[in-house]
Design goal:
alpha/beta; eight-stranded parallel β-barrel; 47% helix
Length: 255
Amino acid sequence: MTVLSVNVNKIAVLRNSRGGGEPDVVRAARTCLLAGAHGITVHPRPDQRHVRTDDVLALSGLTHAHGVELNLEGNPFAPARPGYPGFLALCEQVRPAQATLVPDDDGQLTSDHGFDFEKEAKRLGPLVAALAALGCRVSVFVDAGGSRLELARELGADRVDIYTGPYAQAHARGDAATALQDCVQTARQARALGLGVNAGHDLSVDNLGQFLASVPGIKEVSIGHALISESLYAGLGPTVRRYLDVIDGETTAFA
């Protein structure tokens, strides 16, 4: 079964644009969980442009109370700075069920590529081991159609997280076949190596159904931007439930 982890970063972006505490990130996350979401994802960045360390601590308490997973995304190489203790240190504080490693930097608007394992293996290895020692399941961000997934397995990663931005763009153009095949190839290779497969980035209620029907064995999708955007029209709870319907194969798009 594929599970849905809702990324609530965009709630924090809206809050930070005005200052203060509204909209409330924890309340939004609770609403998603009450609507049936299986977990919560956040990607705290060192510049604190959306979720902050205090949000991560509060969301850790919420997910623990609800008995669901917190998926903490981040660049494991980003140095600590005021207000941000560093990704590993933050994981030490909250012990997320899953730590998803993403090779982004401060200059990126959003995550847009996977790891080059040939270049990064030596640096990643000790960090993956440290996260595993904390009890975190470790997932690493990968490009669809990329190679050398065996290096991810050798590093000790438990899962790969397929970057689905190119698929979403191709789907919007009406030409998703090649991008889907890249995702299928990567998922099959990962599973053959004993790696679990997650996916995320620009997945939406319109393109999720085709993705899940085509790509085998997806354990988790983490969805934020599209889901939060759609919830402005339909409401947060109903939007989460619509995504769950797509995952269950009951519908493919909004009416």
